[in-house]
Structure formats: C-alpha cells, structure tokens
C-alpha cells in the first residue's frame, strides 16, 4: 500500500464566543481554526493533511511529519523583526508566532520541505532575519472574490518557482503586509508589477513561499506549489 506523505498544516486559535459557534456558557473555550482549502490542496496533490494545535511541542510534530505548510492569518508581531507596531489591521497572536517559528526551528533541523502561503511566506522571511512592510493597502483586495486574480507575478528565470509556474502567473491578493528586507539565505524569485516581492525560495533548503493564496483560486487542485510540497515530502 502506498503511504501518502504527512503534511502538517498550521492554523490559528480563538475563543468560541468570538466565533458564535457555541452557547454562552462555552464562550471562553478555545477553538482551533483552519481553512479547509489548504487541506484540499494537499489532498489533491496526494498528501495527507495533519492539523496542528499550538499546545503541542513543534519538535514532536515535525518528528512525525514529511512536510510542512504554513498558512495565512494574522500579522506577525513586529518585535519579531525588530520594529515597533505601525499597523493593527490584524493584531498579532504571540502564541501562533512562537509556535510557527518553533516549527521552523524543527524543520531546519530535520530537513523536511516547507511551503509558506501569505503569512507563511512572511514567517519564512522573519525566521531568517528579514523584515516586513507593515501596511501596503493597495494589495489588500479584501473586497474582491478570493478566487479572482487581480495582478500578475513574474518569476526569475531559472528559479524553482519559474520551473513550477512558468514565466508568470495571474494571482489573487489578500494581504496588507509585504516582504521588505529579504532574509539571508532566501531569494526573491517572484515579483508583482509594482516590484512587490510575491515569492521567496531558499538557496540551500527545500523551502518555498508565495504571497498570494493558491488554495483559494480555481486551479487549486492542480496548483504546482501543493504538488511540489507533496512530492518533496514523499522523496
């Protein structure tokens, strides 16, 4: 029997009362949240998604996983990249920051492949010592359908991402923060028309990240990022 690679998927936590999913007596109970789109992308590529609640030691998770997918969500605490808070559109969640950076430590030690989407690519950059632009309103197209492309990304010739996507790709845009200083060990291999970094890849590690949301687009089940992650995890 062929065993599907196990792909860990990060999520976020909230309280049941904030989400309106429980009676008042349970309003203060914690709830873990994951957009199913990420799991469907992994499943379509032949992997088996594993949801990861924050209270578990990241090393324990990564020791059982074949690959890691860092997903979208709230802003990373600017203190993590040596800045003061300048925007609070999506306030940081310190527990998630600590958990995902711990996952990166474990992934770096184990050598498993990592893919980052939206916040996930920002985690890759901040983990390596890079910084972020805290608010770029022109990219925050939250009023448009999430599956609709709004601009083009051009990939650097010879990059791994160009090998996956070709010379360019039309993408959606559901973020208000962007990559500023690129971390050492990473390359900016995809950019929007305005120069915004839309994709990163590691020089000597199996790490790729994109700023858009491929899991929400029409081509999700054929998207090369999911295929790459599952294939690299299976290898």
Summarize this, please?
The chain has 235 residues and is α/β, with parallel strands linked by helices.
Would you kindly provide a written description of the structure presented here, covering whatever features stand out?
The protein has one domain: 3-Layer(aba) Sandwich (Rossmann fold), CATH 3.40.50.880. It is of the alpha/beta class and about 240 residues long. The two termini are about 15 Å apart. The protein is built from seven helices and 13 strands. The strands form three sheets. A nine-stranded mixed sheet has the order 4-1-5-6-13-12-11-8-9, with helices on both faces.
Annotation keywords:
single chain, alpha/beta, nine-stranded mixed beta sheet, two-stranded antiparallel ribbon, 7 helices
CATH topology: Rossmann fold
Helix % is 25-40%
* Number of separate helices: 7
Number of domains: 1
Give the SSE map.
Layout: E1 6-10, E2 12-15, H1 16-19, E3 30-33, H2 36-44, E4 48-52, H3 58-62, E5 67-70, H4 94-110, E6 114-117, H5 119-127, E7 132-133, E8 151-155, H6 160-165, E9 168-171, E10 178-179, E11 186-192, E12 197-202, E13 207-210, H7 224-234
């Amino acid at each position: 029997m062929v065993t599907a690679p196990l792909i860990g998927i990060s999520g976020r936590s909230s309280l049941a009362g904030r989400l309106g999913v429980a009676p008042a007596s349970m309003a203060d109970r914690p709830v873990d949240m994951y957009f199913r789109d990420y799991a469907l992308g992994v499943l379509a590529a032949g992997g088996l998604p594993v949801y990861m609640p924050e209270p578990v030691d990241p090393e324990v998770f990564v020791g059982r996983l074949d690959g890691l997918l860092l997903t979208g969500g709230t802003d990373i605490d600017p203190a993590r990249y040596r800045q003061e808070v300048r925007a609070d559109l999506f306030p940081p969640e310190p527990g998630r920051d600590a958990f995902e950076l711990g996952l990166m430590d474990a992934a770096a030690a184990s050598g498993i492949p990592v893919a980052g989407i939206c916040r996930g690519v920002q985690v890759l950059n901040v983990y390596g010592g890079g910084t972020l632009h805290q608010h770029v309103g022109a990219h925050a197209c939250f009023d448009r359908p999430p599956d609709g492309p709004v601009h083009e990304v051009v990939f650097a010739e010879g990059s791994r991402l160009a090998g996956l996507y070709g010379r360019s790709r039309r993408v959606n845009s559901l973020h208000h923060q962007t990559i500023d200083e690129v971390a050492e060990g990473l390359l900016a291999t995809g950019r929007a028309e305005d120069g915004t970094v839309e994709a990163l890849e590691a020089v000597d590690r199996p790490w790729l990240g994109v700023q858009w949301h491929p899991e929400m687009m029409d081509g999700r089940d054929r998207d090369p990022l999911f295929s790459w992650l599952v294939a690299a995890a299976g290898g």
